[in-house]
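WARN retry 2 of 3 for item q-0093 after timeout on previous attempt; input resubmitted unchanged.
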Amino acid sequence: MRKILNFAHAYMILGVVSGFYYREITKLNGFTGDTQLSVVHTHLLALGMLFLLLVLALEKLFALTSSRLFGWFFWIYNAGLALTVAMMTLHGTLTVLGHDSNEAIALAAGLGHILLTVGLVLLFITLGKRIPAKQAPTHPAEAAQPSTL
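OK item q-0093 returned
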């Protein structure tokens, strides 16, 4: 659980720093157009910090880390987020500096999104295995009681 919290904290710091970077690089270069730098801050805070805090709560409820798949989810998801955010930052910086982006950046960003998707699929598989299925009552008196979620 500590590793999840530490990564969420790191994403919070990176999110704040990326917002500062966006503001300062655009101000220094007199840039007023659209750039992907404007959403790096949000991606880091939402997909990094907030999402991992949610995973931390789910870990507390369902012991997700006891599943072998959790490690795969964690590292693939974080690799995907890191690659996606790095490419957004690179593309946005090039835009602010007046340079063209290239296909390698787009390809790497696409790979980052694919890794994020694979990570999310692994998380849902892990959740499905850790959340118990609804069981039929074993005693007739239990059948008469309303079920709880």
